[in-house]
Design a protein that fits this description.
Strand content: 15-25%
Oligomer: single chain
Shape: elongated
Radius of gyration: 25 Å
CATH architecture of one domain: 2-Layer Sandwich
Strand order of the largest sheet: 4-3-2-5-6
Largest sheet: 5 strands, mixed
Distance between the termini: 85 Å
């Protein structure tokens, strides 16, 4: 009688596939976080009291002609409100930053603020350029 049968080792491929898929998903997510958002080059207004904001979920670029851009798409006020409502089930938790050039009429900036308020967004930041030599306080 044989007490120990000699069996050949088997290479289990299913756990190896699971590990490879996990690594693939991990690297895809990390890569997507590294891709910068597309934006518009703006000459931001200067400010003495500038704080570093957390990375917003939505950046609204207000152009001089009154149009607004979000992630490369040009929107009017109604479409911007709809986009903000669709971004999250609770718009109060969305972080929005509005960036407008120095020479943009203030009324165009107010339209972006109105769209945010109509969508229920309460966490709104305003982009500004720190003044050279300002301490940022």
């Amino acid at each position: 009688m044989r007490y120990f049968e000699h069996r050949r080792g088997r290479v289990e491929i299913i756990p190896m596939i699971d590990v490879m898929l996990f690594l693939l998903v991990f690297f895809v997510i990390v890569t997507l976080q590294m891709i910068p958002d597309a934006g518009v080059s703006l000459q931001l207004p200067d400010a003495h009291a500038v704080q570093q904001l957390q990375k917003p979920e939505v950046v609204i670029n207000v152009l001089r002609d009154g149009s607004m851009q979000v992630k490369g798409a040009t929107l009017d006020q109604a479409h911007l409100t709809a986009l903000l409502r669709a971004t999250s089930s609770d718009p109060k938790n969305i972080q929005v930053t509005i960036a407008a050039a120095k020479n943009t009429p203030f009324q165009n900036f107010v339209h972006a603020m109105d769209a945010c308020r109509d969508a229920g967004v309460t966490d709104i930041g305003i982009a500004a350029q720190p003044i050279a030599g300002a301490d940022g306080q």
